[in-house]
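Sequence, please.
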C-alpha cells in the first residue's frame, strides 16, 4: 500500500462509526438502544472481572467490541450494484457468498444478495440485496424498471472517487473521508421521499414489501445496523424494560438469571470468542473465582439504576415494541449467531407522483437488530 493511501481498514471503521451516527440521528430509538447495550456490556464486563481476576476492558476496547458488526441495504438495478461494489472496495470490503431468494417456493422474494466484508479478520459486513425485476410479470417488471431507470443515487463526485480508487488502488485520507460523507449524506441516507404510491401499494399487498422498499424510494437507505452485545438475554431484558414491557420485578429476575447463567457458562473459549484481542495465554493467566448470587444481584441493581434514568425512558419515542422471540440457537450454544431486535418502526413518507401530486403516508421496514 502506498504511503499516501489511507488504511482501508481504518477507513472502514470510520465508515461504520459515521453510519452509526447517521442512523442514530434518523432513528432516535436506535441511538438510545446503543446506550442500553453499552450499559449491559459494562455490566457483563464487571461480572467477568469478578470471575476472571485481572480481566478488564478499556473504554476504547469496550466501544470497539460493542460496535456495529453488520448492516443491510437494498439495491434496485445492476448499475447501482456495480457502484456499490466499487464504494465498498474503497474500504477493503469484498463480496462473500451468494444468496438467491427467488427460488424458495412459497417464501421466495425477488432479490439476490451477497455480503461485503474484508477478506481477512472481518470486523464489519453489509448484507446487500439486488432487486430482480424479472421475477414479476412483464407489466409489473416494466413499471419497476421504468421507475428505477432515472434514479441516480450516486452523485458525480461519489462516482469520481470510486473510479479514482479503482485506478489508483487506494484513496488518500481526504478522499476517503469525502467518500464516507457521500455515503452518509446521500447514498445511505433516509429521505422519507418516494415515488409511485400505487405501485408501492400493489407490491406490498402482494407480499413483496421488500420490492416496494427498493423500487419506490430515492436512496439505498440502511434497513438496519447491528451492534454487538456480550449477553443477548440481558440486553433483550433491558430493552423490554426500557420500552415499558417489563416490570422492575420481572426485569430483576430475568437479568439475575441471565448473569448467573453467564457466570457459569463463560469459559476460556467463550472469552476468546467474544474478546478477540485476548490471547489464550492472556486468558489462562486470569485467576478464576466463583461469583456469588449476592454479587450478581448488586450488578443487576446497578444496571437497573442506569436503565431508570430519564435518557433511557423510551415511552415517548416512536416504537412498536420488541420482538417476541430471539432468532438463533439457545444461549448454551457457544458458536452459532443469535440475534434479536426491536420491531420495525412506522415512519412518515411523502410520495411524489408523476402528475405532480403528493401522497403523505407511512412505511414500516427499518428495525433495530442486535447480535451475539
Amino acid at each position: 500500500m502506498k504511503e499516501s493511501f489511507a488504511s482501508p481498514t481504518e477507513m472502514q471503521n470510520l465508515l461504520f462509526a459515521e453510519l452509526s451516527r447517521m442512523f442514530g440521528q434518523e432513528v432516535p430509538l436506535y441511538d438510545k438502544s446503543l446506550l442500553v447495550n453499552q450499559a449491559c456490556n459494562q455490566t457483563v464486563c464487571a461480572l467477568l472481572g469478578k470471575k476472571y481476576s485481572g480481566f478488564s476492558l478499556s473504554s476504547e476496547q469496550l466501544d470497539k467490541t460493542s460496535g456495529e458488526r453488520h448492516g443491510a441495504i437494498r439495491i434496485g438495478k445492476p448499475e447501482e450494484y456495480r457502484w456499490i461494489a466499487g464504494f465498498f472496495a474503497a474500504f477493503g470490503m469484498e463480496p462473500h457468498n451468494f444468496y438467491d431468494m427467488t427460488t424458495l417456493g412459497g417464501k421466495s422474494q425477488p432479490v439476490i444478495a451477497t455480503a461485503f466484508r474484508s477478506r481477512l479478520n472481518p470486523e464489519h459486513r453489509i448484507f446487500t440485496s439486488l432487486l430482480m425485476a424479472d421475477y414479476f410479470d412483464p407489466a409489473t417488471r416494466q413499471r419497476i424498471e421504468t421507475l428505477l431507470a432515472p434514479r441516480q443515487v450516486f452523485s458525480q463526485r461519489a462516482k469520481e472517487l470510486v473510479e479514482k480508487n479503482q485506478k489508483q488502488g487506494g484513496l488518500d485520507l481526504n478522499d476517503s473521508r469525502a467518500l464516507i460523507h457521500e455515503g452518509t449524506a446521500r447514498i445511505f441516507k433516509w429521505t422519507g421521499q418516494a415515488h409511485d404510491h400505487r405501485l408501492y401499494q400493489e407490491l406490498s399487498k402482494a407480499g413483496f414489501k421488500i420490492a416496494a422498499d427498493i423500487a419506490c424510494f430515492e436512496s439505498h437507505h440502511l434497513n438496519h445496523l447491528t451492534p454487538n452485545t456480550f449477553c443477548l438475554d440481558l440486553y433483550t431484558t433491558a430493552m423490554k424494560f426500557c420500552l415499558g414491557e417489563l416490570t422492575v420485578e420481572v426485569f430483576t429476575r430475568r437479568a439475575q438469571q441471565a448473569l448467573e447463567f453467564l457466570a457459569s457458562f463463560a469459559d476460556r473459549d467463550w472469552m476468546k470468542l467474544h474478546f478477540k484481542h485476548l490471547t489464550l495465554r492472556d486468558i489462562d493467566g486470569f485467576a478464576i473465582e466463583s461469583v456469588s448470587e449476592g454479587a450478581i444481584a448488586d450488578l443487576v441493581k446497578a444496571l437497573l439504576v442506569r436503565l431508570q434514568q430519564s435518557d433511557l425512558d423510551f415511552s415517548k419515542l416512536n416504537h412498536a415494541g420488541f420482538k417476541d422471540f430471539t432468532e438463533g440457537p439457545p444461549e448454551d450454544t457457544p458458536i452459532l449467531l443469535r440475534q434479536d431486535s426491536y420491531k420495525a418502526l412506522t415512519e412518515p413518507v411523502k410520495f411524489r407522483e408523476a402528475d405532480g401530486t403528493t401522497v403523505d403516508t407511512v412505511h414500516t421496514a427499518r428495525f433495530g437488530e442486535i447480535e451475539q
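Residues 28-51 form the longest helix (24 residues).
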